[in-house]
Amino acid sequence: MQNDALMWKLVLAYDGTDFHGWQVQPDRLTVQGLLRDALARITGEDVLPQGSGRTDAGVHALGQVASFALAAPIPETNMVRALNRILPSSVRVLSAARMAHDFHARHSALAKTYEYRIFRGTICPPWQARYVYALNTPLDVDAMQRCARMILGEHDFTSFAASDSDARSNVRCLDASDWMEEPGLLLYRVRGNGFLHHMVRNLVGTFLEVGRGNLAETEFPAILAARSRDEAGPTAPARGLFLVNVDYPNH
After folding, report:
1. Looking at 27, 37, 56, 102, which residue is catalytic?
2. What is the location of CATH 3.30.70.660 in the chain?
């Protein structure tokens, strides 16, 4: 980073349906790629914004965070306005702030919160279909909740990591894991210091197997302890998952 460059923090929301995830990929539409191109148009500088995490294709965000350094001295309100003029309506910059030089969207994060949304009605309205997993089968939500509480604290989550996960360690610490019912919706919200590739979706898929009665809740501790992806349930669809927010020190 140049000595005269300013570090920026953006908070973004996006509809992930039409994107191949956050991370830039050749010849594919990604949120990171769009943001990089928009910043280049505004400033003439070639920067690659770093996200707090790499949301998968089809996953949405209510509070994704990106960081990057720019030499251009743009007022914060102008940055938000200029980016939202260029970006498609499926991506919105909610706020922009200048930060200390050592701020990094991923490395500085203390915790992330994800939410998974399941539609429980008979017919899912078209305007909701992109943002929920429509599932109208009977579920034992109490059993799902008891399993969700079993993963609180520090555990090795290998059983719930994607087979292509390249994490150095699969140990993560979760301080919230709850199922909640709202009119027409079943929500799973989880907060932790980090998440593995597909981890939340694999947890949800396994909880749902318990809810359907295909797995006994007494089997869940053994699945967690097995440290084997083959032991856990299927991966829940991406469209129901949202990155809700990212917590940082003094925020």
Report:
1. 56
2. 111-247
